[in-house]
Amino acid sequence: MSLNATLGIVSSIALFIPAILILVFKLITNRSFLALSTYYLVAGIYNLISQNVLNPPLWFARPLGIAVNLLDAPLMMLFLTFFSTSHEMTKRIIWGIWIFFAFEAVILLVAGFSVNAIRVILGPDIIIIIGLSFFFFQRNVRLAITNSKSLGKAIMSSSVLLSYTIFTVVYVFYYLIKNQQYRRDSELVYYLISIVSALLMSAGIIIENKRIKKLDELKNTRKELATIYGKTAGLNKDSRFLKTGH
């Protein structure tokens, strides 16, 4: 088995880890983590198809590869709403997703459901994700220095920023430079960075899950206290009816 094939299979396993963690930690009810788990699942499955570990018919495998690339930016943008600092920012990102879908539709109408369409779409895709992830990365890293509660988000955003920054190099050598050796080398780089970024993301999910669980416990405690003291207040208020007159 070649080095590329070996790393392709290893990267698939690594890509499944964040998706499994999201399921185990029951974070999938959050739309951002649902988008992230979908992103990793489809990428991992397609890697296995690329290495012939899975052998679906060509009529299914080829469109799936194109669909994986079409969903790349929308799924990652939806995940990045998790880092949003305001409701307005979240709305802007959601609008950005719909605009990107419209952009993809136009390109597909012009170039068809083909690799050429993907070549055009992936350029803006990578630039947008790098810009968003850099903004969230620098913000959460700065916060993590003084507040460990932001550490999980800092690691997750660094995973996205690192992977898409390297994807820029992969994109250039795989899609723009027509050289088979460069294409093989770019595949190798893609698999390596997929492994590193997936493991980073997994670490961030584990840390962030602990913070989310603590927040949930705090909310439940507040609800219980509100229920207890609310009932007590009610009894104190109505205790005059229990008093007997002289």
Description of the molecule:
The protein is mostly helical. It has a single domain (3-213), classed as Up-down Bundle (Rhopdopsin 7-helix transmembrane proteins), CATH 1.20.1070.10. It has 7 helices and no strands. The chain has helices at residues 3-24, 31-50, 58-80, 87-111, 115-146, 151-176, 180-238. Helix 1 (3-24) packs parallel to helix 7 (180-238). It is globular and about 70 Å long. The model is unreliable at 237-246 (pLDDT under 50).
Q: Which runs of at least 5 residues are low in confidence (pLDDT < 50)?
A: 237-246
CATH fold field value: Rhopdopsin 7-helix transmembrane proteins
Computed CA radius of gyration, to the nearest angstrom: 24 Å
User: What's the main sheet like?
Assistant: none
Number of H/I helices: 7
Strand-residue proportion: under 5%
Shape assignment: globular
Fraction of residues in helices?
over 70%
Number of structural domains? 1
Q: Mean pLDDT, as a whole number?
A: 87
Order of helices and strands: HHHHHHH
CATH architecture: Up-down Bundle
Structural class: mainly alpha
N-end to C-end Cα span: 97 Å
CATH classification class: Mainly Alpha
The CATH homologous superfamily name equals: Rhodopsin 7-helix transmembrane proteins
Please provide the count of β strands.
0
